[in-house]
Every structure is written in structure tokens, then in C-alpha cells.
């Protein structure tokens, strides 16, 4: 199940979402009754606003103090921060401290309701108490390609990387056809 469907988020579901977020809603409480773990995959696409809404929903469903992170449920995040960023949301690692030339800027503007929720969600992410970093690439054994991916990921791509990537492009200029071996033998 996706996080959006669990939150009853989606097109044409605003009324349903508001009803489901009320304390005492039996369907909401039943859906969360036996939940002990939440697995959030592709965490790079989960933003602070989305995490704040999930936190509020779980606290409501579990009848928990809103200060109890995620209603006491364990959350396991999977993914890579360096992949796709959340759409119209701030990433989980967003830092709200504004700086100018390395100095903290004093902002007298009051935060919006959305920013307050995002800051609450950011506080949740700072409570993560266990991180496992996987460093071995399992999807390719090609060392040159692995090194290229790491350089591109860090914004350090080279001209040689570009040339290597060009060797993997199938197009008219390269005279490679999916109708020819070995490509036509793929099922």
C-alpha cells in the first residue's frame, strides 16, 4: 500500500481524507490497530509535509499524545537521499536555519502553518536512532560504470564519463538495432 493511499490522499479524495483524520473514526482506528511497523520505501520522495500528515494520522488513530513520535510505531526508511526529491515538498533532510555568508540570519517573519508542520516532521527525522548505510553496489559488477555513477551522483562527472555513457546509447548513429543479435534474443 502506498503512503498516499494510506493517508487517503489522492485526486478527488479531500472530503474522505478530512473524515478519516477525525478521532473516533472506527475505520481509521481499525486500520491502525495492529500496526507496529511502517516501512517507507523510496524515502527521497517522502517530504516533510507528507511525514507530518502521516504522524498526525497515526497519533489520531492510536489515540496517542501528539508529542509521541509516530504514535509509538517503529518506522523503517529505505532509499537513497540522492535520488528523486519530493514533489512540492521539502526533503526530510531540509535544514530550516537560514544563513547568509555563513552567518545565521535572523528572520522575524512568522512561519506558516505548513512550515510549522514541516519543522515538526524535521524534528521527527532527528529522532532516528539507527541508520544502516549500504555501500556495496549490487546491481552492476562493472567497476568503471560504478565509479562513473558515484562521480555523477556527486556532481563530479568527467568528459570520459560522458564518452562512456555515449557507448550505451542506442540510436541511428550507432547502427544498433533491437532486431539484431544479441538484442533480438531477449525475452
From TrEMBL:
<dbReference type="InterPro" id="IPR027417">
    <property type="entry name" value="P-loop_NTPase"/>
</dbReference>
<dbReference type="GO" id="GO:0043139">
    <property type="term" value="F:5'-3' DNA helicase activity"/>
</dbReference>
<dbReference type="InterPro" id="IPR010285">
    <property type="entry name" value="DNA_helicase_pif1-like_DEAD"/>
</dbReference>
<dbReference type="GO" id="GO:0005524">
    <property type="term" value="F:ATP binding"/>
</dbReference>
<dbReference type="GO" id="GO:0006310">
    <property type="term" value="P:DNA recombination"/>
</dbReference>
<dbReference type="GO" id="GO:0000723">
    <property type="term" value="P:telomere maintenance"/>
</dbReference>
<keyword id="KW-0234">DNA repair</keyword>
<keyword id="KW-0067">ATP-binding</keyword>
<keyword id="KW-0547">Nucleotide-binding</keyword>
<dbReference type="GO" id="GO:0006281">
    <property type="term" value="P:DNA repair"/>
</dbReference>
<dbReference type="GO" id="GO:0016787">
    <property type="term" value="F:hydrolase activity"/>
</dbReference>
<feature type="domain" description="DNA helicase Pif1-like DEAD-box helicase">
    <location>
        <begin position="2"/>
        <end position="98"/>
    </location>
</feature>
<keyword id="KW-0233">DNA recombination</keyword>
<feature type="region of interest" description="Disordered">
    <location>
        <begin position="1"/>
        <end position="22"/>
    </location>
</feature>
<keyword id="KW-0227">DNA damage</keyword>
<dbReference type="Pfam" id="PF05970">
    <property type="entry name" value="PIF1"/>
</dbReference>
<dbReference type="InterPro" id="IPR051055">
    <property type="entry name" value="PIF1_helicase"/>
</dbReference>
<comment type="similarity">
    <text>Belongs to the helicase family.</text>
</comment>
<protein>
    <recommendedName>
        <fullName>ATP-dependent DNA helicase</fullName>
        <ecNumber>5.6.2.3</ecNumber>
    </recommendedName>
</protein>
<keyword id="KW-0378">Hydrolase</keyword>
<keyword id="KW-0347">Helicase</keyword>
Amino acid at each position: 500500500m502506498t503512503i498516499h493511499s494510506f493517508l487517503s490522499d489522492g485526486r478527488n479524495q479531500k472530503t474522505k481524507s478530512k473524515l478519516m483524520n477525525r478521532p473516533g473514526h472506527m475505520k481509521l482506528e481499525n486500520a491502525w490497530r495492529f500496526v507496529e511497523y511502517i516501512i517507507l520505501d523510496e524515502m527521497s520522495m517522502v517530504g516533510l509535509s507528507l511525514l507530518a500528515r502521516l504522524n498526525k494520522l497515526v497519533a489520531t488513530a492510536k489515540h496517542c499524545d501528539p508529542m509521541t513520535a509516530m504514535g509509538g510505531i517503529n518506522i523503517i526508511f529505505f532509499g537513497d537521499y540522492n535520488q528523486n526529491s519530493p514533489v512540492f515538498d521539502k526533503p526530510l533532510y531540509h535544514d530550516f536555519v537560514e544563513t547568509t555568508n555563513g552567518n545565521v540570519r535572523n528572520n522575524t517573519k512568522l512561519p506558516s502553518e505548513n512550515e510549522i508542520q514541516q519543522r515538526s516532521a524535521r524534528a521527527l527525522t532527528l529522532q532516528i536512532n539507527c541508520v544502516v548505510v549500504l555501500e556495496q553496489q549490487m546491481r552492476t559488477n562493472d567497476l568503471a560504470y560504478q565509479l562513473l555513477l558515484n562521480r555523477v551522483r556527486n556532481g563530479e562527472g568527467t568528459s570520459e564519463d560522458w564518452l562512456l555513457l555515449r557507448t550505451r546509447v542506442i540510436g541511428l548513429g550507432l547502427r544498433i538495432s533491437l532486431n539484431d543479435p544479441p538484442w533480438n534474443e531477449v525475452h
